[in-house]
Design goal:
0% helix, 139 residues, 4-stranded antiparallel sheet, OB fold (Dihydrolipoamide Acetyltransferase, E2P)
Length: 139
């Protein structure tokens, strides 16, 4: 995808490149211009920088409290006033993986789950049969 921009009467093209996950993993952090992904069977996170908004996300807590339960489809937090807050781990076509354990104390804004990303599928000759999850756009 190419977009034409104009600056001081000069036109130029900006080529937008989509970044895809290469391996299976989970998103651990997302901010305005970057994504951190922990890939399966790797010790360190990979950090991607973008000039555009990332296309993956994490779930963050809107309350302080303690993780009461982690089920297949939701995380339950009980706050200091004994109110229960539930976070759905399935959202449209996104699936989230818990990054916390039952009994953990949680702060407001803390990441509690990250989006699952799928890596590309290649044949024995290295040809890409299916692209991985789109994680962001690079300019």
């Amino acid at each position: 995808m190419s977009t034409t921009y104009s600056n001081n009467n000069e036109e130029f093209d900006l080529l937008m490149i989509t970044e895809f996950a290469k391996l299976n993993g989970v998103v651990t952090k997302v901010d305005a211009e970057s994504v951190h992904i922990l890939y399966v069977n790797e010790k360190d996170e990979r950090h991607y920088l973008f000039k555009q908004k990332p296309l993956v996300k994490v779930l963050t807590s809107i309350t302080e409290g303690v993780i009461q339960s982690i089920e297949e489809e939701k995380i339950t937090i009980e706050d200091d006033e004994k109110q229960i807050v539930e976070y759905n781990l399935l959202e449209f076509e996104r699936e989230f993986i818990p990054l916390v354990k039952q009994g953990d104390s949680i702060n407001i804004g803390q990441t509690i789950a990250g989006q699952r990303v799928y890596g590309e599928i290649v044949d024995d000759k290295g040809n890409v049969l299916q692209k991985g999850t789109k994680i962001g756009l690079c300019a």
